[in-house]
Every structure is written in C-alpha cells, then in structure tokens.
Specification:
- This protein is α+β, with helices and mostly antiparallel strands.
- It has a domain at 358-465: Sandwich (Immunoglobulin-like).
- It contains 17 helices and 16 strands.
- Strands 8, 9, 10, 12 and 14 form a five-stranded antiparallel sheet that branches. Strands 13-11-15-16 form a four-stranded antiparallel sheet, with no helix packed on it.
- Helix 2 crosses helix 5 (110-126) and helix 3 packs antiparallel against helix 17 (332-353).
- The chain is elongated.
Length: 466
C-alpha cells in the first residue's frame, strides 16, 4: 500500500510531458506576434553590424572594460546607469503586467520569440498540425529521417547563428566572423557560441513550454501583480456555456446551448497546451492565439466575436462597457507605477545629456608624504587618473585651490589624452602654508579641457602639512 501511495504521489509531482502540436492560426494577435518577432530579431541580429564612428555601434568590451552604445561610452564608474536601466526594466514589467497581464511573455520574451521561429521552421518542413502528428506516429524510415534531419539542421543553423551574434556583442563581430572563417576562434568565443547556441536549440526546439511552466519565475509570481481590473485573456462562460456541437443553421438558443461549439480550436492553437475555458492559469503566456482561433470559428458560425477576449474580471462580472473598463484599468497603482517610471526615465535621460566626457581620480602617493623644499614651500605628490570618455582626443589643464600659493607641477601641460582612453599622470602640488598647523587640509583639483571650457571636473583631496 505504501509503495502504491508513493507511486501515486510521484505521478502527481512529476507529470510525464505530452508533446504539444500547436495549430497554425492567423488573425490580429498573430500579426502582432509576427511583427514583434521580426522587430526583435532585426534589432538583435542587426545591431552588432551597425558601425558608429568607425567602430561597432553596440559593443560590450569586457577586456577593455568599456561599453559602447551608439555615441555613448560607459566605463566601470558608470555602473549606476546599468542599475537605473534594470530598475526601468523592472518597473516597466510591473506596469505592463498590472495593465494587461503577460504582454512581455506573449510577444517579446526571447523564449517566446525563438519558440515561434522554431515552430515556423517545423511547420514549413514537416507540415501542418495533422501532418506532424502523423509523421511522429509513423515508424522510422528514410523519409522520416530526412524530414526530421532537415528540420534539426535548420534549427541548429539558426541556433549557431544566434550564438555567434550573441558573442558578437562582446567581441567585435567582424573580427569574430573573420576568425570563424579562418577557423582561428579562441576557446572562450568557441565555448560561448556553442553554449548559447545549444541553449537556444534546447529551449526553443525541445523544451518550449516547459521553460515557461517550470523554469521561468515570472510565471509563478505574476499572480500577485494581477488584480480584478487587469486585462487578461478570458473565456466568457456566460456566453459560451453550456457548450456543445451543432450545425451552423441550428438554433442554439432553442437547444439551450451557449455560443461555444466545443471545437477545441482554442486548445489546439495554444503553444502551452492549456484550455482557457477552465479559467486563467499560470501556464498562460498571454499570446492570444486562442482569441484568434476562436474568432475564426465565431465568424464561420455567424456568432459575434469575443467569446474569448482581453477583458477584466470586473468588466466580465459587471458587464462594463469598454470605456468603463479602461477607466477602471488606470487605477492608483497603475498611475503610481507610470509616474515613478517616467520620473526615473526623465532623470536618467537628463543625467546622460549632462554627463561630462571627463572623469578624474586623485590618488595620493603614499611612498612620499610631504617634502620640504625650502622657503616654507611644502610639496605633496599625487597621481591623477584622467579618463577621456569622449570619442575625440582632448588636452587638459590641471590646477588646484584651497591653500596659499598652491600650484600643480607636471612634466608638461596641457595633458593630452587620446579618445576613449585613460592616462595616469604624476603631479606635484606645492603650497606655502605659512602659519598653518601640521595636519591634513582639504584642497581641490581642477581639470579642464583647453579646447572646451565646458568640459571641467573638480575633485577633492587633502594636502599634508608637517
């Protein structure tokens, strides 16, 4: 008995996967999915090849610790901008989810996008849903091996190209392409191309809905981000029940039926294999394929569309109009998310616009603290690390303030720093402290461009007097 109970428990916890054969569907939302697949892939595959100022427009050069994004160059000191970007992405996800559920999952998530691409390839090579089911049920033979082999060959080619493009964001893609052509790839580039390609092939070709169901955390915590005024894909049971088959010419109302003909098209087109008529489920990725499929059936039967549609719980229960529903969607939580999101975007945009293309770090020379030169002149030694984040060379002049007679002495001024480079310059600072007592006194270094007076940075430090 104990063994049987354990077996039942294992069966409940670890359900054997049943392969899903999604049916192709067309319609408004299918068109939106195609649009976002094309848009995201044009951006992903195209950006690394775009040139900007004779360099790759988007390049995350980890070895040189520089991130190039169009006309901007980010250094490790600009890590705050990455933090702000992540905050903006998180708030955007919260806002979109609060308004209309899993829009990200249904239209722009890489897992959804690549699964869609791989399913298109599968449909082109193996055929429609019925042909794929029939092909999988037949014994292995020459035709089945050829068809399956062709499909997987195309899948692998797409996956490897995706891995190559991914690595091209971290290694200049033109150099990477030359290395691939010459079979001279380095070990790390080879590893990441194969790793990312394998992940794409496995997730989009084999695991598919399993990633969304069991691996993606968003599917688990999305419920706490919904409320009764969130737009979600919903089956209108009031219209559809009781469901049942009937002919197009029959009077379904006289037969006591709803508008659902129980054709299960909504289940057949679902990429995760759920039945939306059972209510909202965490597996639903919000792709709206069931809406397109059901609308086609309603058109054929001569019934009004919208048996399955985007709506809210309150709108469905209280029979709200579209205007009333939209008014309730923009409740305080959504407005707060929107206000915070736009505040951060505007603040970040302003900070980027006002960002100085010059950064200076002041490092005291601990080997030589204070030197006395005579006539009351004391000297401290520093190193100025000057970072020119502009894509043009600049010449800088360094000075200091804060003590009587203070001056900065370098091997030569102005200090020339090449484009997008840093230069460490040893400097001596001399001052005549007069009657000042021994101790540490605050001073300021002033570094400015000799060509553009607007490019200037002030950095604090201390001057030791003994």
């Amino acid at each position: 008995m104990a063994t049987a109970a354990a077996a039942d428990q294992n069966e409940a916890l670890y359900e054997i996967r049943k392969k899903i054969y999604p049916r192709a569907v067309s319609g408004l939302f299918a068109g939106w999915r195609v649009f976002f697949v094309i848009l995201t892939q044009v951006i992903f595959y195209g950006l690394p090849w775009l040139q900007w100022n004779s360099r790759q427009a988007v390049l995350f050069d980890l070895a040189a610790r520089k991130f190039y994004i169009l006309g901007l160059v980010f250094w490790p000191q600009d890590f705050i901008y990455l933090t702000v970007l992540l905050v903006i992405c998180a708030l955007s996800l919260f806002l979109f989810t609060a308004v209309a559920g899993r829009l990200w999952c249904g239209y722009a998530c890489p897992q959804t996008v690549y699964t869609e691409i791989f399913m298109w390839i599968e449909q082109m090579i193996e055929g429609d849903r019925l042909r794929r089911v029939k092909l999988d049920s037949t014994p292995w033979g020459a035709r089945k091996i050829a068809v399956k082999g062709a499909k997987h060959a195309v899948w692998i080619a797409v996956a490897l190209w995706t891995g190559f493009t991914f690595v091209g964001y971290f290694t200049p893609i033109r150099t990477l392409g030359h290395e691939v052509a010459m079979l001279s790839l380095g070990p790390w580039e080879t590893f990441w191309i194969l790793f990312y390609g394998f992940a794409t092939y496995g997730n989009a070709g084999w695991m598919r809905e399993q990633v969304c169901k069991y691996m993606c955390p968003y599917a688990r915590f999305q419920g706490v981000m919904f409320d009764r005024d969130t737009l979600v894909i919903t089956y209108d049971a009031g219209r559809g029940e009781p469901r049942g088959a009937r002919s197009r010419s029959s009077d379904y109302k006289a037969a006591g039926l709803g508008t659902c003909v129980d054709c299960e098209i909504c289940v057949q087109v679902c990429p995760v294999g759920i039945d939306i008529r059972k209510g909202l489920q965490y597996e639903c990725i919000g792709c709206a394929a069931c809406i397109d499929g059901c609308d086609k059936v309603m058109d054929k039967m001569g019934y009004p569309r919208g048996l399955i549609r985007y709506t809210t719980e309150n709108a469905l229960e209280n029979h709200l109009s579209w205007t009333q529903m939209v008014q309730r969607i923009f409740h305080p939580r959504v407005l707060i998310y929107t206000a915070i999101l736009w505040s951060i975007i505007i603040a970040a945009g302003t900070a980027l616009y006002l960002r100085e293309p010059l950064k200076v770090n002041v490092i005291r020379d601990r080997g030589t603290l204070v030197r006395e030169l005579g006539n009351g002149v004391l000297e401290n030694v520093y190193r100025l690390q000057i970072m020119n984040t502009d894509e043009a060379a600049h010449r800088y002049i360094a000075s200091a303030s804060g003590l009587n007679g203070i001056k900065v002495i370098t091997d030569g001024q102005p200090i020339e720093v090449p484009a997008v480079s840093s230069l460490t310059v040893p400097v001596r600072v001399q001052a005549v402290p007069g009657s000042s007592k021994p101790g540490a006194y605050p001073i300021q270094f002033h570094v400015r461009s000799s060509e553009d007076k607007r490019i200037a940075v002030n950095e604090k430090s201390i001057f030791l007097i003994r």
